[in-house]
Amino acid sequence: MDEEVTLRPCNLADVDDLYEYASDDKVSAWCRWDTYTNKEDLLNYMKTCMIPHPWMRVICYRGRPVGSISVTPYTGADRCRAELGYVLASQYWGKGIATKAVKLTMETVFKDLKDLERVEALVDVENFGSQKVLEKSGFTKDGVLRRFWINKGTVRDMILYSFISTDPLV
Fold it and tell me: Among 10, 18, 40, 129, which residue has the least CB neighbours within 10 Å?
């Protein structure tokens, strides 16, 4: 499995593979974005958000894009923190692919992003699969943020996880 999961920068040629999960209601149910209904909108998102993102990678399984993962740094006095986000095509859930992608990310992101000390991830209290991914990847459950955000019209509780750098800046 280890050599079968790789990360690489996103490019526009990935649109067909990424559309496979971006157009899946099971995937978008846990995401801030709505299910994509056409490739043109996804292509625009890739051009304006994914490709210029400071740390976003495509998750590949056996060389094929099956998801994406990002670490979004905060700014100013919060620049020591960043938020992790990931998404994976539903047919690959439960196979260890997301866990491997998160582990690969955590191996490099503290070197890649200056001043980074802490990576955070927010997970819906009912998204048990994603909770397992983070726990298997070495994240610590910090607590529950009650009534934290609105997803698809419903106020949701979220669990805050964190991963702390082993190489402090101080």
Answer: 40
* Cα–Cα distance, 156 to 68 (Å, whole number): 23
Cα–Cα distance measured from residue 5 to residue 51, given in angstroms and rounded to the nearest whole number: 20
Residue 66 amino acid letter? V
Are 32 and 85 in contact, with CB atoms under 8 Å apart?
Answer: no
The structure tokens listed for 86 are: 């990931």
The whole-angstrom separation of Cα 161 and Cα 81 is 12
How do residues 116-130 score in pLDDT, each as one tens digit?
Answer: 999 999 999 999 999
- Strands across the sheet with 154-164, in order? 5-8, 56-61, 64-73, 81-88, 118-124, 154-164, 140-151
Angle between helices 128-136 and 97-112 (to 10 degrees): 50
pLDDT tens digit sequence for 144-164: 999 998 888 889 999 999 999
Please give the single-letter amino acid code of residue 70: S
